[in-house]
Write a sequence for this structure.
């Protein structure tokens, strides 16, 4: 995008499911004339084109990590109206993102001498996926960005 200030454009209403209720919220749109794009300002708790607020995805992801079955997760979230199929799709996406993030972080750790030396032995002995995840989470630095998809704004 260029450095032109965007201008107020239109707005639209959207339904958001949070907890067990449906809310209607207003989404403001901004426009950049030179670039000929419109940007929707989404709140941080929403992903583009999603009806369910992000905390559902977050809790489902956490439950996947703790080994809770898809059937149990579906039952736990039944009041929200999220289907098993949707949860299945989220699970696949979640694991894809997680794996990508793990690869990135492995690379970072391998390039950081101090950290690499301290955990090399553990890698040589062999790690389960769970043990490695624990190490990667422990060595996660706050300065690094979290593994998220773009959610602050999107063009349409
Ligand atoms: Zn522009």
């Amino acid at each position: 995008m260029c450095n032109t200030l965007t201008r107020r454009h239109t707005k639209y209403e959207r339904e958001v499911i949070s907890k067990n209720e449906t809310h209607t919220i207003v989404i403001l749109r901004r426009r950049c004339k030179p670039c000929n794009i419109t940007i929707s300002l989404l709140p941080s708790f929403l992903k583009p084109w999603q009806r369910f607020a992000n905390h559902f995805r977050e809790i489902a992801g956490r439950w996947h990590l703790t080994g809770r079955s898809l059937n149990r997760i579906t039952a736990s979230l039944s009041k929200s109206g999220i289907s098993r199929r949707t949860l299945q799709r989220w699970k696949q996406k979640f694991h894809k993102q997680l794996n990508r993030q793990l690869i990135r972080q492995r690379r970072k750790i391998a390039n950081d001498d101090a950290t690499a030396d301290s955990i090399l032995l553990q890698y040589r002995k062999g790690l389960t996926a769970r043990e490695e995840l624990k190490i990667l989470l422990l060595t996660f630095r706050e300065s690094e960005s979290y593994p998220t998809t773009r959610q602050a704004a999107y063009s349409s």
The longest helix spans residues 84-111. The chain has two domains: 1-51, 54-147. DSSP finds five helices and four strands in the chain. Residues 1-2, 4, 32, 34-35 surround zinc ion (CB under 6 Å).
